[in-house]
Amino acid sequence: MEDGNDLKELSKILGILLKKRRDDGHHSQEEFSLKVGKHRQWVSKIENGNSLPSILNLHYYTKAVGIDMGELLNEACRIFDQQKAPAKMVAEHNQGLEYFKKNKRRKANNKD
Question: Does the pTM of the predicted model rise above 0.90?
Fold first, then answer.
């Protein structure tokens, strides 16, 4: 199930990774936008996590910075999963507590 917040978070992670790769190549957004044939605002939106590029545009971007698109996506997903893990553990813990409380109330009601 897709969550809008998850999509935003993944977009931000992907943007940070893409910006880092562009910076590693010592390109300004303006120089880079000319290299990929896009407007500078497009590059900015992607790097700030305000827009998620299509697969084709991501291919052009990663090719321009000289990285493998699959590796980039794997890294972004790994970071995303690491960030989500603590929240998932808390949610599962809270579900377990709620289950325990319900069973405890049920047992107390059966004793009466």
Answer: no
